[in-house]
Write a structure and sequence with these properties.
The chain is an all-alpha fold. Helix content is 83%, strand content 0%. The protein has a domain at 47-156. The protein has helices spanning 3-64, 66-77, 84-109, 115-128, 132-141, 147-156. The N and C termini lie far apart (98 Å).
Length: 161
């Protein structure tokens, strides 16, 4: 057997080994990419659930406690003045509501909230931004929030109220 033929056979075996290694690596990369995509979807889903729970907690308080529901209605309609205690409680609830929505908004800006859930909460928030008492509260307290969120809210609040 000649050395040239042996060298050619060795090169052929090496080339086959390189091709096999590349095919194996490609399959591993594909599997890892799919894993990352699944983990990302799960993370977005978890964040959606977390944001949803925060929003529902505020609604749940109003369902469970007629006094809180009455306070929210009275404060939001702004047709009669709130007592000092009512004003304080109403402000705490709105602070919680706006903090929750701000967190949700920031998650949306970063792309970590599903578009469907964001669209829903954005519509709900739009409706709330037209309540006279909420507008009055926002004008006094809005500056403490993230500037990008402030810009977002300012675009939703009617300025003739």
């Amino acid at each position: 057997m000649n050395w040239d033929a042996l060298g050619a056979i060795a090169e052929l075996v090496a080339a086959i080994g390189v091709i096999a290694s590349l095919i194996y690596l490609a399959k591993q990369i594909g599997a890892n990419t799919e894993n990352v995509a699944q983990n990302t979807k799960a993370l977005v889903s978890d964040r959606d659930v977390s944001s949803n729970e925060a929003a529902l907690e505020i609604i749940g308080l109003q369902i469970k406690d007629p006094g809180i529901a009455a306070l929210m209605l009275k404060g939001s309609l702004d047709e009669e003045p709130l007592s000092d205690l009512e004003h304080y409680r109403y402000s705490l609830i709105l602070t919680s509501m706006f903090e929750s929505h701000q967190t949700f908004f920031i998650q949306h800006v970063k792309g970590s909230v599903s578009e469907e859930l964001w669209a829903y909460y954005s519509r709900v928030f739009d409706a709330q931004c037209h309540m006279p008492g909420l507008i009055k509260w926002w004008k006094r307290n809005g500056a403490r929030f993230d500037p990008l969120f402030v810009e977002y809210v300012q675009a939703k609040i009617p300025h003739d109220v």
